[in-house]
Amino acid sequence: MKEVKAFRPGLFSGNTVVVSGGTSGIGLSLAKGFAEAGATVIATGSSERRLATAKAEERGGISFQRLDVRDKQAVTTFFSGLKRLDVLVNCQGVARPDAEWEEETFMDVMDINLSSAMRLSRESFPLLKEAKGSIVNVASMLSYLADETVPAYTASKTGIVGLTRALAHKYGREGVRVNAIAPGYHRTEMTKPLWSVPDSEKKISDRSALKRWGTTEDLVGPVLFLASPAAAFVTGVTLPVDGGYHVG
Fold first, then answer.
1. Active-site residues: which are they?
2. Which residue of 28, 81, 92, 166 has the lowest C-beta tally within 10 Å?
3. pTM (whole model) above 0.90
4. Is 60 exceeded by the pLDDT of residue 2?
């Protein structure tokens, strides 16, 4: 993973990192990145299928646990079982195209994508305060743009930007930093319907300033930077990592 090699070996040695939504896609790449940088990583997810797949593949430094981020009691119990926490990565997220126009689906997506970020951040705060740690949220280029097929996803990811700012001010007085990244078009299962079709794949590549799709590994370096001592005076920031797509 080339991004990790940009940092000194063992940068996060002795640190405990929780990556919510870390059993596949972007979250799994972030979990691997922190583990390669020396951290003890707990990656959570609610899909039994993805948990089983992740557990079946041995990954040094990463343990996988089931956590339904919509369940407040489960979240409280999860963090009460930790002795230390240095970094929380809120990477949980879903998109349900077209179905999000139905109220029940809209509210469920908002809960998973936005409300849970507040829930996890609040419940983890005592541990982060003790460690003078940090939170990295995962927003989206749809925090700035729009997609009419996913109104809840668009609204929730826009909300992540505002929540990041609010948490940064609330928690900053206790030495806890809160930042976010805003991924663009990266090759994941969620975006497969687009990158697997040559016409749409090319259209998106052409709009990007770098003329390519992102990989999940492209997100690792920015997240490690935001969680590292190199960003000690950076908080409340949402960093676009989209190859220049949203400014195209």
1. 153
2. 81
3. yes
4. no
